[in-house]
Amino acid sequence: MSRLKLLVTLIGLAALLAACAPIPPAATPQAAATVPATTSAAQAATGTVQLDTQGLPYSWNATAAGATPYDASQPPGPVGLPAHTAVTFGVAEPQDRQPGDPIMRIVPVTEYEALWDAAGNPYVSMMITSIYSWTVALQSPPPTAGLPALPPEDITGVNDLAVQIGRPASDAESAAKNGVRFVGRWAQDANPVTAESSLYYTFQGFTNDGRNLVTFFYPVTTPKLPKQAELSPAEMDKFNSDPQAYIEAQAETLNGLAATDFEPDLTTLDKLVGSLQIVGTPATGLTGVVWEWLGTSWYELSGGVYTLKTNPVADPTLYQVVYNTDGTLSVKADCNNAAGEYTSEGGVTGSVRVEMGPTTLAMCAEGSRSQELINSLMAAQDFRVQPGGAELQLNMPAGGPVLVFRNSGPAAE
């Protein structure tokens, strides 16, 4: 195997391992229910999607894209998408789009995973797990290759370059407040990064309710890169002697550039992503749902080894939490009821603070966890709505326990 082929293979393995990385802590004491059906992403076509292209030279059009079956028969690899919303730029229909043209997709997570899992291929589920991991926390120091991205229809090869990793700013109305953005290149062979390289501003994230994966690719370039014709024989010899080291050095240079050194300006593209609005998408994934408490999980250290522990709730229907859109909180805690107020930041993941108000003080049956739930709600500092929207995790401070809830259906308005 040549050094170039070996490099691409190693990068592909690194991406696969990253996709398998667990998201701490994510223990579920009891299986979460499937999210009750509501308006699907495929129905979020023109009229329900709003976008501000920030003056870029493209008109945009949102259409309901039909499902395409899982197909592993054609190189470079398997493809397949459920019905979803495709936002094209400069063309009216997704089928009119040329390879490399800008594209945004809003893809229902549960249906996407099911399509590939049914074919015996866990790749999409693994990649969504990895994208969610990046959504929750950026790695430090950041890698320069191997970042997760979907769908395969919009990329070719492996991610051999990833720079300018960060988060786009969003506003209170954004439908996808959480995700990761980077400038990436996908290749089937290692090559120097030049002005002719196909670089893409890439966003991978989730709608605030966790139901949909949001992906966005937009071609970018920078005059700071050399042209292919300008590379001297000595420079090519340097590349051929150690392609990985050469590309890493180029990544360091690109990471040192300002957002304004790229065309279009990366900040402009950040604002485009942050402007996405979808009618019916909540401002935060906490709201609009009756969350039933499944139990608590934590890690226990013994003999230098961490062991996962869980304490499931016997009857989750007795313990329910509703975060109302007006900032109030309604709690059913076994034989008691409570009300309070909360503040939160973020979409599918973020911070939350609760102040409990009036609470009934009935004596519930022996073994009740009424007070435990109320105390934990007040102590929680962070939340994570899992991809698909079926599960909520509330994290206690200082690496404390995690409360796990299932989505039991929409809350009454």
Overview of this structure, please?
- The protein has 413 residues and is α+β, with helices and mostly antiparallel strands.
- The chain starts with a helix and ends with a strand.
- An 8-stranded antiparallel barrel has the order 12-14-15-16-17-18-19-20. Strands 2-5-6-10-9-8-7 form a 7-stranded antiparallel beta sheet, with helices on both faces. A two-stranded antiparallel ribbon has the order 1-11.
- Strand 15 and strand 16 form a beta hairpin.
- It has 2 domains: 276 residues, no CATH class; 122 residues, Beta Barrel (Lipocalin).
Summarize the entry for a quick read.
A hairpin with a 2-residue loop joins strand 15 and strand 16 (336-346).
- SSE string: HEEEEEEHHEEEEHHHEEEEEEEHEEE
Sheet with most strands: 8 strands, antiparallel, barrel
Low-confidence stretches: 1-28, 30-46
Number of strands: 20
Span of the ends, CA to CA:
62 Å
Our Rg estimate from Cα atoms comes to: 23 Å
Helix content: 10-25%
**Apparent shape:** elongated
Q: Which secondary-structure class do the elements indicate? A: alpha+beta
Average residue-wise pLDDT: 89
Number of helical segments? 7
Strand order of the largest sheet: 12-14-15-16-17-18-19-20
How much β-strand is present in the residues? 25-35%
Q: Please, how many domains?
A: 2
